[in-house]
């Protein structure tokens, strides 16, 4: 009897290799020099996260990095030519960057959002109760309320005083600064609370933040601790209680982005949905090699609440920015015609498979940490509501482009059909007749105070984005 060599592949093993998609960990394809690049990219990314905890900070941080690379304010530029680098800020909370190509017609766009779930203040938030000064909040975006209690929080934002003075605040990020907290109910008295559904365990109206406990020494004043807090804010920042009405103040998790795991292969940080995509698109644009097409990066606000308002993707900012480019490049075209039939990536994250909660996933269509950037043809919820959908032709274009440039990718859906879902700003790009698909990294614990991403996925997202910008 002839023994068949163990390493000889059968006809159907070969056929399986030819016909089946191979899903593998992207770390397997890295070499030592790749790891150096990956670590540098991700260390710089963590610094970006630390300095960009609100959309205003993200805009300022992004503009500062762009200026170092030679970008100039479009509003002060009289004319444009190929190779020029420009930016435009929209109402402090959204932004566009562009490198001018041979024409503005049919530019290449990557859009991401720079807002993240957080706790905003109510118009009149400060009150006193039980010998504590407290601030009332109104949560922003989709959160699990219970995740925000007993969590060190930092206060970030801007206040415009009655006389027009701008006060910028950042309190709680440095070790010498205080943090703020929402106290939870102790387990000894939480019998009724623990019987509630998770969504009701801590209500939105219970997300009140402790900000002080020392009273002023005056028995004729009723709210002594509240007044002590107001006195502190007035002495240090020149604020009065009415200034809360004129504020953009937000509470976010305090602390820096950190590596996760014994192998330090993961990143934990607040706001990776969606500043991960914002940072990757910024670096891709800054490192693009003389693109022939005009390349644009948009950074939008308000995605977490429907892309509404003057700084969201549903505003006219896309049209205004494109129209301004056309006028200053002396092109006789409209923004709508220039955008029509262009190509775009909506840079946004997706849910990573979580070992403990696989019951919400379709296992053959779940994306996982470590297999590269995820390309999603559509999002939305059951019945594909609240989404756009890329064409077969465009999916072929992107997957081939990423393969050619060795950017590891995967694809899937956001959970089982009818389990839930989520939309992105892709639908607001597609209304212009733009080819668009979602391309972003998988995230563990999305919308939690701290989210987890993979360094290898982050770097492959950057490789995918720069391949898109550099494509002829």
Structure in a nutshell:
This protein is α/β, with parallel strands linked by helices. The protein is built from 12 helices and 22 strands.
Describe this protein's structure.
A nine-stranded mixed sheet has the order 1-2-3-13-4-14-20-16-18, sandwiched between helices. The chain has helices at residues 11-19, 32-50, 55-68, 191-195, 198-201, 224-237, 272-286, 317-328, 335-339, 392-404, 426-430, 455-470; strands spanning 72-73, 85-90, 94-99, 108-113, 118-129, 132-140, 153-160, 166-171, 208-212, 247-253, 258-260, 266-269, 295-300, 343-346, 350-351, 373-376, 380-381, 409-410, 421-422, 435-440, 442-443, 451-454. Helix 7 packs across helix 12 (455-470). The model has no long low-confidence stretch (mean pLDDT 94). It is of the alpha/beta class and 472 residues long. It is globular and about 85 Å long. Helix content is 28%, strand content 23%. It has two domains: 26-116 and 270-470, 3-Layer(aba) Sandwich (Aminopeptidase), CATH 3.40.630.10; 118-253, Aminopeptidase i, Domain 2.
Return the CATH architecture of the largest domain.
3-Layer(aba) Sandwich
Give the overall pLDDT as a whole number.
94
**Please, what is the CATH homologous superfamily of the largest domain?**
Zn peptidases
Largest sheet: 9 strands, mixed
Helix fraction, binned, reads 25-40%
Distance between the termini: 59 Å
Percent strand: 15-25%
What's the domain count?
A: 2
């Amino acid at each position: 009897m002839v023994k068949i060599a163990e390493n000889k592949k059968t006809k159907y093993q070969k056929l399986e290799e030819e016909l089946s998609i191979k899903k593998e960990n992207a770390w397997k394809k890295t070499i030592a020099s790749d790891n150096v690049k990956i670590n540098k990219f991700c260390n710089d990314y963590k610094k970006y996260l630390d300095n960009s905890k609100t959309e205003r900070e993200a805009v300022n941080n992004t503009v500062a990095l762009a200026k170092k690379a030679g970008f100039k304010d479009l509003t002060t530029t009289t004319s444009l030519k190929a190779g020029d680098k420009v930016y435009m800020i929209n109402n402090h909370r959204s932004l566009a960057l562009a490198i001018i190509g041979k024409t503005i017609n049919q530019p290449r766009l990557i859009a991401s959002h720079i807002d993240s779930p957080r706790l905003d203040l109510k118009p009149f938030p400060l009150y006193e109760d039980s010998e504590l000064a407290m601030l009332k909040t109104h949560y922003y975006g989709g959160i699990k309320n219970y995740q925000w209690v007993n969590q060190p929080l930092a206060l970030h934002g801007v206040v415009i005083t009655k006389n027009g003075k701008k006060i910028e605040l950042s309190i709680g990020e440095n070790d010498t600064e205080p943090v703020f907290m929402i106290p939870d109910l102790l387990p000894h008295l939480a019998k009724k609370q623990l019987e509630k559904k998770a969504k009701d365990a801590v209500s939105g109206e219970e997300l009140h933040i402790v900000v002080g406990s020392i009273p002023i020494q005056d028995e004729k004043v009723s709210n002594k601790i509240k007044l002590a807090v107001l006195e502190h804010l007035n002495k240090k920042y020149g604020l009065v209680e009415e200034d809360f009405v004129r504020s953009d103040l937000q509470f976010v998790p305090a602390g820096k982005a950190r590596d996760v795991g014994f192998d330090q292969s993961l990143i934990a940080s607040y706001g990776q949905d969606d500043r991960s995509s914002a940072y990757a698109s910024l670096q891709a644009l800054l490192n693009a090699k003389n693109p022939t097409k005009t390349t644009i990066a948009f950074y939008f606000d308000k995605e977490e609440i429907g892309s509404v308002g003057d700084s969201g993707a549903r505003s006219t900012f896309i049209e205004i920015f494109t129209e301004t480019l056309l006028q200053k490049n002396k092109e006789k075209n409209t923004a709508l015609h220039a955008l029509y039939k262009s190509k775009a990536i909506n840079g946004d994250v997706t849910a990573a498979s979580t070992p403990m909660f696989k019951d919400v996933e379709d296992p053959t269509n779940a994306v996982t940490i470590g297999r590269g950037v995820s390309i999603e043809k559509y999002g939305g919820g059951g019945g594909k509501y609240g989404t756009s959908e890329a064409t077969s032709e465009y999916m072929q274009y992107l997957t081939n482009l990423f393969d050619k440039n060795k950017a590891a990718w995967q694809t899937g859906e956001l959970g089982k059909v009818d389990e839930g879902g989520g939309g992105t700003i892709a639908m607001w790009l597609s209304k212009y007749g733009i080819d668009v698909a979602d391309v972003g990294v998988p995230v563990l614990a999305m919308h939690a105070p701290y989210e987890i991403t993979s360094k290898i996925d982050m770097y492959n997202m950057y490789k995918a984005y720069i391949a898109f910008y550099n494509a002829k």
